[in-house]
Specification:
single chain; mainly alpha
């Protein structure tokens, strides 16, 4: 059983109802984009990256990294956007402070997501009991798929958390 922070969950679920970017990410997911692509696309205007390149670049992260069911694709999309907006660029010692600040930012975003959902790991979020890769062929997006998968809600929450982070930073 995943442990969640009920107060934070209530807070973020209320925020998600009014989150423009969260709603946009959920709509992209419903269109058929994977979870990572959907979150990244919701912030495409801020990143300044060609949308076709953005979609291709984030395509590997769906299904917890190519359906390996590791880090949730919505989280990877959130991290991708954070890197594009706030990431560091200097290698070695020159970028050490920027690197530390950016990793702190990523850990903060992860902590918020984990508090609401109990994990940042795809297989745990989906309640899968096996480790490692799933079949590489994604399931068809049917009405039944959307009923049994929380992915649309996870995308919505990841984008909402990031939207608020950006507004405050």
């Amino acid at each position: 059983m995943l442990k969640i922070d009920e107060k934070k969950a209530d807070y973020w679920l209320k925020k998600a109802e009014e989150s423009e970017r969260g709603q946009r990410a959920a709509a992209y997911f419903k269109e058929g984009y994977n979870c990572s692509q959907a979150v990244a696309l919701a912030f495409a205007d801020l990143i300044g990256m060609d949308e076709k390149l953005l979609v291709r670049t984030t395509s590997s992260f769906g299904g917890g990294m190519g359906r390996l069911r590791e880090v949730c694709g919505a989280v990877s999309g959130m991290f991708f956007v954070a890197g594009a907006l706030y990431g560091y660029g200097e290698p070695g010692m020159a970028g050490q402070q920027e690197k530390a600040a950016h990793y702190e930012r990523i850990q903060e975003l992860a902590a918020e997501y984990r508090a609401v959902n109990g994990s940042i790991v795809c297989r745990e979020l989906l309640g899968l009991d096996h480790s490692g890769a799933d079949q590489p062929t994604p399931e068809l997006r049917t009405a039944e798929y959307y009923k049994k998968r929380p992915c649309g809600q996870l995308v919505l929450l990841a984008a909402t958390i990031l939207e608020e982070y950006i507004a405050n930073h």
